Amino acid sequence: MTTETGTQTTGVRGTGSRPTRRGRASGVSAKTRTGLAAGVLLAPFFVLFGVAMVIPVGYALWLSLFTEKQSGLGFDGPRTVFHGLGNYADALGDQAFRDGFWVLLGYCAFYIPLMVGGALILSLLLDTALARARRFFQLALFLPHAIPGLIAALIWIYLYTPQLSPVVQAMEAGGLGFDFFSSEGTLPSVVNIALWEWLGYNVVIFYASLQAIDRSLLEAATVDGAGQWRLALSIKFPLIRASLGLVLLFTVIGSLQLFTEPLILSRGSGSAVTSTWTPNMYAYSAAFERNDYGLAAAASVLIALVAAALSFGVTRFSNRKEARA
Known about the structure:
mainly alpha, two-stranded antiparallel ribbon, 3% strand, 13 helices, globular, disordered N terminus, 2 strands, single chain
């Protein structure tokens, strides 16, 4: 009896252990299949990321370490030699490159508050508007963003030119003379073009976040007697704080990439914008006007480092604000 019971018990144990092993085996194979599927789906992204980002950045780093020098008396043509960190020292030692960052600082001081604050105010107004008016203003605000920056700059050059622009003529008729191409008017001119082009894009981000707010919260606050200003400041604004950090991050990065608008203003408009007005324009001038690709690569790397540092700072600031909230 004991032996049979023991045998039966052993058989039961043996039978019970087999499904466990099969389950483990099937679980491992399922995980393997999931990993392979994820790898196949993510492979195009990593290939495109490597081709479009990693390889160009690596090539720029490599190129920034070399320069071209004339050999002998210059009859043999230029030859590429290793320059180490010399290109970085040359870029940082150039007054034009340093002045470009001061221009960017002034640009950010005007552009970022106007962009973020204007987009936030307009999105709050859209959220409280009537349904028909809301759709019209959504299209009207976003339509300038659909126009390429090159075309936008050309349009505003026409509107800035005194002999052609009806806007300037109307301002002069009203006694408001202003030279948009002077050294004092260049920065506001560029800020105006960027605002006109990108304001609608940020309004869409804020408006989408406002539409995701639970309407029952707003209805409850309205029943309690909260007006539109109270709803905007006490309920809507705190709930879209994450979108505010995102828009601020995009705006800072976009400010450091300022290039198209001042480049167009510097070509044939009589503007005070020079070929090295911003750091990006300095890198462009070094590469395609002076053929100094090592210096241009070094300047580009320095701009990228500044952008990375500012992006990190804005992200940390936004995360701290979100954690406190």
